[in-house]
Fold this sequence. Notes:
Protocatechuate 4,5-dioxygenase, Chain B, alpha/beta
Amino acid sequence: MTSPAANTATPATSATSAAAATAAADRRVPARHPFAAHLRRAAAAERAASHRLWTPGDGPLPSLYLSHGAPMLFEMTDWMTELHSWARALPKPKAVLIVSAHWESAPLSISSRQPSELVYDFGGFDPMYYQMRYDTPAATDLADQVARLMPDTEPVHEHPSRGLDHGAWVPMKIMYPDADIPVLQLSMPTHDPGRLLELGRRLRPLRESGVLVIGSGYMTHGLPFIDWNHLDRVPGWSSDFDAWASDALARGDVDELASFRTRAPGMPYAHPTVEHFTPLFVTLGAATDPTAAPVTAIDGFALGLAKRSLQAA
């Protein structure tokens, strides 16, 4: 019989083992694949200058809203470079809390505290994407922090076997490819902008302890209306919605943004379902001042969809 002590792994040992599993899976990516090249560039950047860790002297980290794309993002060199450069421009967070468009669940829930199997919630892609891994360190401390920030009337339910879905692990794997930062996913319990702003407000203190709070969606997501024969063309509904959102954000007009269903041009084509836009309200709620103009980190279009991504102080 194996003694209990033999089954006990220290956090450092567990983290090292998890990182090794991710690295082993990454080595199976064909050397000529764009993501393999991205990994080589990221490793070279780290060798040239180690990513500086967040310290309290840096002040609160910003909250982010990012357009995340599907696994095909791993084939888009420019977009991967933009995401990784954005991550490197910020101090390296102690942990990441991410709200993804792909986990709509009430009551409010968190993913597993321990590294768990990824959720491969997509279909029709190269088999290599279903073999990718992103085994991050345990997020136990962050899970406890999140639970303490919620009111007694809204306890946080934990799904001990649920891993990160592609709205979380795809951008994280590109931004932080070493998988050495705890990442916890929080469900989106509603699409009501007011309630999501309040949820973000409750999460705001996390930023002061070096946690990066992220809303992950897509600034436009009219997949049924893409012209797959002319992917180089940007549909009017996509460009019009993006321009409207950019203007409202620049003016700090949260009320206008919250009325997107009826006031935004391009609706409902830009968002036939709204789950890729509404994480924005968690991001704004977590900001020190939701009405302050955020900084656009990434703009432009991919497959005709607006990939606008931003950070709020």
